[in-house]
Amino acid sequence: MILDFFKTAANLKNIPRQGWVDKLSISNPESVADHSYSMAIIGMVMSDLENNDSEKILKMILLHDLAESKIGDLTPGQVSKERKTTLENNAFNQIIGGLPEMIKSQYLEIWIEYQENTSPESRLVHQMDKLEMALQAKSYQDGGHDHEKLESFFESAKAEITNPKLKEIFTEILDGH
Description:
Elements: H1 2-10, H2 18-24, H3 32-49, H4 54-64, H5 68-71, H6 81-96, H7 101-116, H8 120-142, H9 147-160, H10 164-175
């Protein structure tokens, strides 16, 4: 059963980040696993700098897109927010179903906390998600993709990032540092 969990998680390497496909027509975009790894690096450094609960934040980052290994990367507009939440929750529960109860309940608690976005850690992880997206958008822009097609990604990040340090880094991304 644990092996099934590992296989499912590894499948994130095969799931493209759909927003890049839809908006930029990129044929070989980053995978969800690429995104999660980059977020984990951001989460590790920012948690350590701000003396947050690094373990909890890293677990939340690693779990936050896990359901996409089953349902794919659904973008806004593909399905309603409510439908997406239902699909993700069902997939997540299926994915962790075979894990030992001790860790299954812990992962479910972290998952729900992220979904509800009510704790300081979950709010920070949601903002890191947007920061990582902006970082990737800037990378695509630097690689020659049209800034206008990327503008919605930058605007989305700008609207969501409120943490002062993350905001500062976001500004540096836009300034091309």
